[in-house]
Amino acid sequence: MPRADLDHPDAIVVGAGLAGLVAASELAEEGRSVVIVEQEPEASLGGQAWWSFGGLFMVDTPEQRAMGVHDSLELAREDWYGSAGFDRDEDLWARRWADAYLEWAAGGKRSWLRERGVGFFPVVGWAERGGGLASGHGNSVPRFHITWGTGPGVIEPFITRVRWAVHQGMAAARHRHRVDELIVEDGRVVGVRGAVLAPSDAGRGEASNRTETGEFELRAPAVIVTSGGIGGNHDLVRANWPERLGTPPESMLSGVPAHVDGRMLGITETAGGRLVNGDRMWHYTEGIRNHSPVWPAHGIRILPGPSSMWFDATGARMPAPCFPGFDTLGTLEHILATGYDHSWFVLTQRIIEKEFALSGSEQNPDLTGKDLKLLAQRVRSGAPGPVEAFKERGADFVVADTLDELLERMQGLSPGGILDTDRITREIIARDRQIDHPFGKDLQVQAIRGARHYRGDKLIRVAPPHKILDPKAGPLIAVKLHVLTRKSLGGIQTDLDSRVLGADGAPVPGLYAAGEAAGFGGGGMHGYRALEGTFLGGCLFSGRAAGLAAAREAG
């Protein structure tokens, strides 16, 4: 294969995250030359996806069937639309992207990934279990397929393909190149301009310098924006905060590095692209402060099973369906309505051992490292090592042998006078009475029993129902939970070829967008709510579409 002129490539990809790597690899496999420009150093290649748990939403798979789960495209579409709540004119392309993505998730997605060497953990997770109604939000069945290798396992095949293209002289990755402008001539995007930044030895996710050492300009027939969302820019998160979720939190943790700042969104808009649904966003309520932070306000999300009792900052028990793992944004709305931005889990050692997982590749060394011996410990007694480390070292964890001692220590982590410990005591005692019977009126207890009908939950995810105050289940544990920023659900509006659309609805010639910057497709294919496992999948799907479409344009 002849080496390409990479000073005049067929396409430019702005951003070296998952969507950008997928787009670049598709371009190279189609015989097109591509240059990736990225402001961060090479250590951060792969972007946010590297840090992820590697969950992928798929429908009617062999893994589901092996676990006794019966799924279908029709059921998945009902769940998606019940969650998305599309209700705007701007949702025209979002609906089309949702339909196309569902077809892929129920069709070629698994085989496409398998062909690239991606494998899956056999137990399918049941994420975002819903808001309580069959026609409403949530997954009716488990669909969260955990990648063998977690986030690094998702990005590795595409890094390999891009590096192969670099070796073949068909691609280049230019790190420390920050795009400040999309070049527009005669209504067409023809390239990018920006600053060359000083070299940096910052590790993955760490802050790198912004020292400018020069300028650059690069031109190509196609430019693909894959720069991510806004989760690291709390000012921008608050500026876009929707009224329906209440007053923005005064304090938030960051689930993404600080360089996830949304700056390319405004640059794309200046070049003629249309931004939509900026008020749709996905933030978690189960954030805890990382005891070993990599970036400012670095938070980790607890992936909870359904058994922990959940209390707001005042000590009131959270109402249905605000149970752990059921309705992320409904719970966020309820918490903020209290006037505070934190809440509490109260649980037992027996629950934490069975039900606590931590989101992120670095918190799951067994799955990330494909270590079968370490993985086997998940079905033995004791909590996973990273969970125990947070219990021992995390600033938000309280452990005690008695309820009185636990409540006293919870008071120490609460603003003065707001936590009604008597109310918490009454709620725990009342809930524990419900355990004495195989029936009852406590919907959370019934949800626990219902979850254990699923083989995967019973095996590794949901503890047998027991009393919180059972000494044999102790010690008691409380966890202070914070709002954790994560994903933008809106963004640059695109058609099904990932072409950026302008205010008039027509494509902006030469300009494409994919991944979180494009709302994972169409400017927001999730609508208001996500079903989980759909963010990485949205980057894969939209990055693939952008790469193939740009290759056709260059051809």
Automatic annotation (TrEMBL):
Coiled-coil residues: none
Keywords for the protein's UniProt record, in alphabetical order: Flavoprotein, Oxidoreductase
Keyword Oxidoreductase: yes
Domain of life: Bacteria
GO MF terms, alphabetically ordered: steroid dehydrogenase activity, acting on the CH-CH group of donors
Annotated ranges, domain FAD-dependent oxidoreductase 2 FAD-binding: 10-536
Keyword Oxidoreductase annotated: yes
PANTHER family, per the entry: 3-KETOSTEROID-DELTA-1-DEHYDROGENASE (PTHR43260), KSDD-LIKE STEROID DEHYDROGENASE RV0785 (PTHR43260:SF1)
Record-given protein name: FAD-binding dehydrogenase
Organism in which the protein naturally occurs: Agromyces rhizosphaerae
Lineage per the UniProt record: Bacteria, Bacillati, Actinomycetota, Actinomycetes, Micrococcales
